[in-house]
Amino acid sequence: MKNIIWKLLRKHVSATQLAGFALANLVGLTIVILAVQFYLDVKPVFADEDSFISKDYLVITRTITGTGALMGSGSEFPDSAVATLQQQPWCRQVGRFISSDFAISATVGVGGGRAMRSQFFFEAIPDEFIDVNADQWGFNPSRPEVPVIVSRDYLSLYNFGFAATQGMPRISEGQAGMIPLSFTFSGNGLTEDMPGRIVGFSNRLNTVIVPQDFLTWANERYGTGMPRQPQRLIVEVNSPGDVKIEQFMSQHRYEVAGDKMSSSKANYFLMLIIGIVIAVGIIISLLAFFVLMLSIYLLLQKNTRKLQDLLLLGYSPSQVARPYIVMVLAINAAVLGLSIALMLATRLYYKDTLTVFGVTGASVLPAMMVALVIMTVITAANVLAIRRRVAALWMQ
Amino acid sequence: MEKIELSHTLPAVFAGRPDTGSDIWLRNVTLERGKRYLVAAESGTGKSSLCAYIYGYRNDYEGTIAFDGRNSRSLSIDEWCRLRCRHIAYLPQEMRLFPELTALENVELKNRITHFKNLQQIEQLFEELAIADKLHSPVAQLSIGQQQRVAVIRTLCQPADFILLDEPVSHLDEANNQIVAQLVTDEATRQGAGIIATSVGNHLKLNDTQHLAL
User: Fold this and answer.
1) Which of A73, A236, B37, B48 is deepest in the core (most CB within 10 A)?
2) pLDDT value for A260
3) Residue A37: which of A378, A335, A349, A289 has the closest Cα?
4) Distance (Å, rounded) from C-alpha A371 to C-alpha A33?
């Protein structure tokens, strides 16, 4: 019995128009949720939480110019410069780099012909600026061992540059912690050996970091005792992409080390591009929505007489509208399902590339929720429009 | 519903015209349940408008129409739907059948929301009106007279306090007029319903009717 109404009302239902809407909305919605998913998946590559300098930290140095050198100003940061930095609204806190003030040589390997020996240097910063998860970070003079964090670039340099050409074994990050390492410190008439261990790798900081308490202790023991100003500062900022930071840096002739600024710029452009893609997807979806609305209006217009006749028989406007509402719900549900399936399928193509960057990929739930919300809004608008149109047919 | 009261009712398009001596327009008229009324009129005097006002799909009139004392303009859409399924059975002059559906489907379309008659009773009515062979024919293929009979059957497929028929036999011959009149009378008697039939010439052959001129 139910299909009598549908038999009556399906007349003038244009399959091509509905297919056009479904396809357009499918494309629009897929673009939107794929962009959202891609952004969530790729974001960790640009804002690596594990890196030595997380997204909120900048390392700065002073630019050395010819005139600056002649005027006698060096590359150091006096206390006044640190104070000025601390007063900036975007600055949360400033940390000073301490350098080693004595001679260091490092030996890698277990002695014999295979051991490598090199001049070395250390730097230290306050512990709160370190976010590498390093066990046994700290120094105990009674049981001396020096934990160091080195730039991940050093490991890459060794693995891909040195080991590959010299027939040496490649070393993973885990194995690096087991490399026998020893340091020889000399100064103040002392020459002492101390074992060392690599406890972590930093993505962004091109230096060798040791615990601050160790370097303070070692500088006192082997150093000249001359008070030195820091040559590098680490600054925690609210937003590394802030234009005001760039203006401040160039005004004071400071240089931002590493790729932090460019990384945040890349992140900014990534967001911009994703934003544009999402906007395009939404526009396509909106246009599709209007195609469906026009199609439905046309359909109701062509079937006006039938709808009015049903109302005269005693059918309520909601009963009369139901077949069209069911039709819209079915189409929109299919579009939603297909769109999510398409997004997941497309994601498989770039998922492997993500693994290369060491990122596992984000949850797909947020993108699915976005799809659900968009389709719910579109469907609700469709249903409302159908109801209003049918209700308007009540008086003849 | 016991009565339909019309007080100073007049189609909006007739406003300002001199009193035409109508028994309904601009008068106080009460149509009572159980009674039979024949509204005779010439073309263009507002006969179909009267039906549309009572059935609630047009409201371009002055004055009031009340059901048991309640102004019909205050009825909600839900109340109108219930009224169209339970209280007033209406046969429009232009019948409003769906030509692409079969005769039976047209009747079932009404009966499925009223659940008033079973298939056997419906087939019986088709038989009495001599169109049993047209049960499964699309209405588009029926003659106007046959369509009018299908429309009558559809009208009878609901409980009613009033059966409102707008020119129900305009395309029927004497014999079929008689049969329709009998079927409508039987149904009205069974339910204690009133009958309001309009006509421009070919009157529905009812007994004991009160004549009203528009």
Assistant:
1) B37
2) 54
3) A349
4) 6
What's the length of chain A?
396
Longest CA span, chain A: 110
Q: Map out the domains of chain B as residue ranges.
A: 3-213
Q: Global pTM? A: 0.68
Is A90 in contact with A246 (CB distance < 8 Å)? Answer: no
CA B5 to chain A, closest CA, distance in angstroms equals 21
According to DSSP, the residues that pair with B38 across neighbouring strands are B197, B211
pLDDT tens profile A94-106: 888 888 888 899 8
Of A314, A317, A391, the CB nearest to B85: A314
Beta-carbon contacts below 8 Å between A and B? 55
CA dist A336 and A330 (Å) reads 10
Q: Tell which phi-psi region holds residue A188, choosing left (phi > 0), alpha (psi between -120 and 50) or beta.
A: left
A308 chain-B contacts, CB cut-off 8 A: 57
Residue A50's pLDDT is 42
Amino acid letter at A201? F
Q: ipTM of the predicted structure?
A: 0.95
The CATH-assigned architecture of domain B3-213 is: 3-Layer(aba) Sandwich (3.40)
The type of residue at A10 is R
Partner-chain contact A396 B84, CB within 8 Å: no
